[in-house]
Design a protein that fits this description.
The protein has 432 residues and is mainly alpha-helical. The protein has one domain: MFS general substrate transporter like domains (Growth Hormone, Chain: A), CATH 1.20.1250. It is 80% helix and 0% strand. It is built from 15 helices and no strands. Helix 1 runs parallel beside helix 3, helix 1 packs across helix 9 and helix 11 packs antiparallel against helix 13. The chain is globular, with a radius of gyration of 21 Å.
Length: 432
């Protein structure tokens, strides 16, 4: 342990590792959506229902994986748990290149889903270990913005790789990036009290508002007992209602821009990038805002509550995105981008609610339970989108299907906010 008494920034290096892992996570999962229209529909004759089936395969596996991933990471720790997860999902990403039909892609998507489930439980547990409460939402917002950077990098690189090397190499190249990250993870990561590069002043700062560890902290907590807490169900409700909105944007935004405005893959890069740049700004701003409220004397519960209400209202204008887009494509893109920013800001605070209330030893399990619920919600919205869009497409009015989907996207956050605040009504920290 370094004797330097100046407040260091090593915790932000750890946050940078989480950021790049999340970038890779979203880069790998988005490749298929960018190749769907130009490659897989003409090559394999995919329909919207075929595509929604593959989305569901990913999300069912992701949901199942979340339950196991959270429990496993709490049991074996973030260092090993994160490493196992990224090795497996990188292999799964590469295996897409060898699929030739729906069954092959379904198996690859399922493998990718179950292995990618380790990312967020690992990352949120790491933030709980490395950051005081007032910085957790900001740290979460920073690393979670990696999801948006992955979504920006993907349309800038994947179509070019597919064009020049073939669609198979798009999966192989993105999958191999995870092994590069693994080197830096093992080189720089360790929990704070074991990290020799960490100064004493920074360790005291990290630990200042965290409970003193006792003998009870080493005792295991039964996973099923976590379901007996209303705070667990508040997190579950928040994830179930709002995670599906992000899944919809992630998997259907390129197709929406193609079907509604005739944009080809080479023309999608700029509007898709703008949406996710706005989402990145929202992610970081959202984390900063609740921390700002706390620095002005507000407790964690009320700071998160106030910030999340603001972000819930940011999503509402997406219901008029298509109407505005009838004037110019860019109005629709900007409105969707603001809604995506609202989601990422909401998400940064929602994850922080889990680490505010629950002790570190069960944070990954709580995130796994809630994220499983979010994935189930994603399955429902994927199925809904597939049937709606195929139905309206057959009627020659696919835009009507998108109207319905955007109405759902605009209203979900306010409903989630109301229900969560019925379950958590005061500032509280649970002890086991």
């Amino acid at each position: 342990m370094s004797k330097d008494n100046t407040l260091g920034t090593y915790r932000w290096r750890i946050c940078a590792l989480l950021f790049f892992a999340t970038t890779i996570n979203y880069l790998d999962r988005q490749v298929i959506s960018l190749l769907k229209d130009d490659y897989f529909e003409p090559l394999f004759g995919w329909t919207e229902r075929d595509y929604s089936f593959l989305v569901i395969c990913f999300q069912v596996a992701y949901a199942v994986g979340m339950l196991g991933a959270g429990w496993l990471i709490d049991k074996i720790g973030t260092k090993l748990g994160y490493a196992v997860s990224i090795v497996l999902w990188s292999v799964a990403a590469v295996l897409h290149a060898f699929a030739k039909g729906i069954p092959g892609f379904a198996a690859a998507r399922a493998f990718l889903g179950i292995s990618e489930a380790g990312n967020f439980p690992s990352a949120i547990k790491t933030v709980a270990e490395w950051f005081p409460k007032k910085e957790r939402a900001l740290a979460t917002g920073v690393f979670n913005s990696g999801a948006n950077i992955g979504a920006i990098v993907a349309p800038l690189t994947v179509p070019l790789i597919a064009l020049h090397l073939g669609w198979e190499w798009a999966f192989i190249a993105t999958g191999l990036t995870g092994f590069i990250w693994l080197y830096f993870w093992f080189r720089y990561y360790e929990i704070p009290k074991k990290q020799n590069r960490l100064g004493e002043a920074e360790l005291r700062y990290i630990s200042a508002d965290q409970p003193i560890e006792t003998a009870a902290d080493g005792k295991p907590v039964r996973w099923l007992s976590l379901l007996g807490y209303r705070q667990t169900w508040a997190f579950v409700v928040g994830k179930f209602l709002t995670d599906p909105i992000w899944w919809f944007y992630l998997f259907w935004l390129p197709s929406f821009l193609n079907k509604e405005y005739g944009l080809q893959k080479t023309e999608l890069a700029l509007p898709v990038a703008l949406v996710y740049v706005l989402a990145s700004v929202g992610s970081i701003f959202g984390g900063w805002l609740s921390g700002h409220f706390m620095s002005r004397g507000m407790d964690a519960h009320h700071a998160r509550k106030k910030a999340m209400l603001i972000f819930a209202f940011m999503a509402v204008p997406v219901v008029v995105a298509q109407a505005a887009g009838s004037l110019t494509l860019w109005f629709a893109v900007i409105i969707i981008g603001i809604a995506a920013a609202g989601h990422q800001a909401w998400s940064a605070n929602l994850y922080s609610v889990a680490s505010d209330i629950f002790p570190k030893k069960v944070v990954a399990s709580i995130v796994g339970i809630g994220s499983m619920a979010g994935a189930v919600g994603g399955i429902i919205i994927a199925q809904t989108a597939g049937y709606l869009l195929d139905y309206f497409k057959s009627q020659g009015a696919i835009e009507s299907g998108y109207y319905v989907m955007f109405f759902i996207c605009g209203s979900a956050y306010l409903l989630a906010w109301l229900l969560m605040n019925q379950l958590i009504r005061k500032n509280e920290t649970l002890e086991f």
